[in-house]
Specification:
Layout (H helix, E strand, L loop, with lengths): L1 E3 L4 H16 L5 E4 L3 H8 L5 E3 L4 H7 L6 H20 L4 E4 L3 H14 L2 E6 L27 H26 L8 H6 L4 E2 L17 E2 L13 H8 L5 E3 L12 H11 L4 E4 L14 E4 L4 H4 L5 E4 L3 H10 L3 E3 L6 H11 L2 E3 L7 H11 L2 H11 L6 H13 L1
Parallel strand pairs: 1-2, 1-4, 2-3, 4-5, 5-6, 6-7, 8-9, 8-11, 9-10, 11-12, 12-13
């Protein structure tokens, strides 16, 4: 099995869970992903070798290149995909493609060229056309306010995908003898896309356009112990509030650590900040705040009072499964959607906008820390499935057979 992606931690971590289950069922697994050391270490820990492709995802995200450079970056990424993924896919039975649409298109083109079976997977349903909601807007290409019908907006979305990625993809496809595509989005989604999200958190409503296979979220088993210094901090007082924004550099909120820690303290709570790609750190030397790096969320979230995060699918699912209330401060892409789901389920609060202020974050924390929210989070935790990666692994073995 070859698992191919390009993106942030949220695009790589689910493949860790899938790789574990595939290996348990006797499959050999390779993973093509960005060359970042944290991804290589995570995959090495489960015995799945990383085949590095493209530039560092962390460096690219922190550099925040302008939207105008997207087609050029897509061309470079597709070329890298065709080079690296082609070599990695030799001898494979099934290729799983996910991540940025240009990367997924490149990987699927490799599968087409080599004549091997492929599966297209998304970790959030907002990339799947639906008459019930509009598409996400691409950077630099806002949706026109005068167009209000969802179907018309999805037609414009298809045009945007072709404009941004079509030339780069077709140029590279021609280089390996494949015909051009006139519908890049349709090629990537296919007739039977997989949706690797939890049905309770992210219920899919059927559409006549295609047959979606919702497997459940791909959760990686994590037996790593918490660092001794962190355990000491946790044991020293009441459960703290966790603050971490994962792969989000938080460019528009440079004082987010100051704001978050002060808001947590105003609730009478201790603060635990995760450094992440935003490089969060304590704001002073007081012992009610602790900073942590890479850590086992499954073990940690069971020991905190609330989780303040960016609204990535993985973090949202991990917090929901742990039964801990959440405050979602969405930054981009699908994150406002996950914030809305958290609020709708009553398991936390959705912060309005990507830049938290002391007052707005304090209000959201008040909601999350209320007893009724904690009770609801505990109840919903019991509905979150843990078998999504196993379901997907068995389906992939069926594909191979």
């Amino acid at each position: 099995m070859l698992l191919s992606t390009y993106g942030s931690r949220g695009d790589v971590e689910p493949l860790v869970g899938l790789a574990v289950r595939l290996r348990e069922l006797g499959a050999q697994v390779r993973v093509c992903a960005p060359p970042d050391e944290e991804f290589a270490q995570r995959l090495a820990g489960v015995g799945a070798p990383l085949v590095p492709v493209g530039p560092s995802a962390r460096a690219l995200t922190k550099a925040a290149p302008p939207p105008s450079s997207l087609p050029q970056r897509a061309a470079q990424l597709v070329a890298a995909q065709l080079d690296v993924v082609t070599a990695a896919a030799e001898g494979c039975d099934v290729l799983v493609a996910t991540g940025l649409i240009s990367a997924a298109a490149g990987a699927l083109s490799v599968a087409e060229k080599l004549g091997i079976r492929s599966v297209s997977v998304t970790f959030q349903q907002l990339t799947l056309p639906s008459p019930r909601r509009p598409p996400l807007a691409y950077p630099g290409r806002p949706l026109p306010p005068e167009v209000t019908g969802n179907r018309a907006l999805w037609d414009l979305d298809a045009q945007s995908v072709n404009a941004l990625f079509g030339e780069a993809l077709n140029t590279n496809r021609a280089s390996i003898g494949l015909p051009p595509l006139d519908d890049v989005r349709g090629y990537v989604i296919g007739d039977r896309p997989w949706l690797a999200t939890d049905p309770a958190l992210d219920p899919w409503q059927r559409t006549p356009d295609f047959d979606v296979v919702q497997t459940g979220a791909w959760l990686a088993p994590d037996e790593r112990p918490l660092p001794a210094e962190l355990v000491t901090f946790l044991d020293a007082g009441a459960p703290p509030v966790y603050v971490g924004f994962g792969s989000m550099p938080m460019h528009t909120a440079s004082d987010v650590a100051q704001v978050a820690i002060e808001a947590v303290r105003a609730q009478g709570r201790r603060a635990l900040v995760r450094r992440g790609w935003a490089d969060l750190a304590p704001i002073d030397g007081q012992d009610d705040c602790f900073a942590v790096g890479e850590v086992n969320h499954q073990a940690l979230f069971r020991r905190v009072a609330a989780v303040v995060h960016h609204g990535g699918a993985g973090t949202t699912t991990a917090a929901a499964r742990a039964g801990v209330p959440q405050v979602v401060v969405p930054q981009s892409a699908d994150q406002p959607y996950w914030a809305g789901r958290v609020a709708a389920l009553g398991i936390g609060a959705a912060h309005h906008g990507p830049v938290p202020a002391f007052g707005s974050l304090s209000a959201a924390l008040g909601t999350a820390l209320a007893p009724r929210t904690a009770a609801r989070a505990t109840a919903v935790a019991g509905t979150i499935r843990a078998d999504g990666a196993t379901v997907a692994a068995r389906l992939l073995l069926d594909e191979a057979a």
